[in-house]
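Lab notebook, bench 4. We co-purified these components, and the gel suggests they stay together. Before we commit to crystallization screens, I want a quick structural picture of the whole thing.
Request: model the full complex, all chains together.
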Amino acid sequence: MKKIIALIAVVALAALSCIPAFAAGINSAEQSVLNNMRTPSNMNGNAVYVPDSYINQAEANFNTIDMTQAQADEINGYINAGRSYLESTKRSSYGELSADEVKTFLGYARAAAGVLDLSAGAGSDLTKGVKIINKSGDVVIDESGNVVKATGAGDEAVPMTVIAVTGTLLAVSCAGVLLSKRKTAVK
Amino acid sequence: MKKKSEKKKRILRLIAIPVAFCLLLYLAVFAVGYPMFSDILSIGSVFLSDKQVDYSKEYENIFVPTGDSKDTVDASEVEFPGINKQFGDLKIKGRNVDAKLFFGDGDIALRNGVGVYAGSFVPGYGKTILVAGHNNTYFNGLKNVKKGDVVTIRTSWGNYKYKINKTAILKDTDKKAFDLSADEENLVLYTCYPFDTLGLTEKRFFVYADKISGPEIVGLYE
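Here is the predicted assembly.
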């Protein structure tokens, strides 16, 4: 009997291990962070929203992790502090922030990302985007470029590019030689 | 003696000026066109090396083709892809579009296939799916598409079909080209326009399609 029970237990465990388990879906802690991100900042009377693309990327990342309520509370604290700071600057948009103000605001973003062992970086102009990477260096959120990418030069364009650049270099070199010859002749 | 030194100077000038000019120009072109030069360096390494270039090692493939799709799939059964991971493929039958599908639309994705913008969503999510591809490689075939054509996307959690309802040529900065906050599943494919053009262009060829089949991901939110 014991053997049969042990066998059933082994089979049950093996079956359980076959069910794929991913950190999929948005739990209530993650949802609270997404909701907080959707709350606008009142910048000098203007309701300024975090762009949809940022919130969507955060949601995509939350689908791959399991955030705890404690982590969410800490992150929400930084988001609230960052929003209060933005409102205290008396600027009307992200684009009006000075380099120092961007630096201070990014401090809150970095602290929030740090709760999930992520690091955030950006240039001096917030409108040009933010990049967030994990400990392994993998990009988690990338808003450092345009939403619509440059899609006009793939690897098949390389031979043409090589020909074009080489041709330009040769033409300009020849022009330089001719110019120096002409100058010498004039002298 | 003076004549000899003058001749030496002239020869030196004839060599030095073009070389200096060439170097300066190269530096200027390099600074301006770095993205293109990375391709040149890459093809240079192909000529210099006897090893075959294997791009497949620069990304992780989590795509496992599945058979018939159900109407719904639970979120717990979906392995949501991270950036630069291949999670499916995209085809348009008879239009010469057949590419690996990546999450994220950076260099790695566009070198190896087409990529879903990470600020949009994967199929089945019920929202906007924005896919980029190069006009001279994987999305060159978009020039052949017609209204009514069907785009097929296969993922590990199900197979999806979208019917093309229109195409449009718009500027890359046009904010009305797509809606990332839409609550209805819609597929937007785009590539640079004109097709077969080299270098940067500000126009994009957009293809819009509505979902006609494929499992909806349920249980996403607690």
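Chain B has a mean pLDDT of 87. Worth comparing against the SEC data before the next meeting. Residues 63 and 87 of chain B are 4 Å apart (CA to CA).
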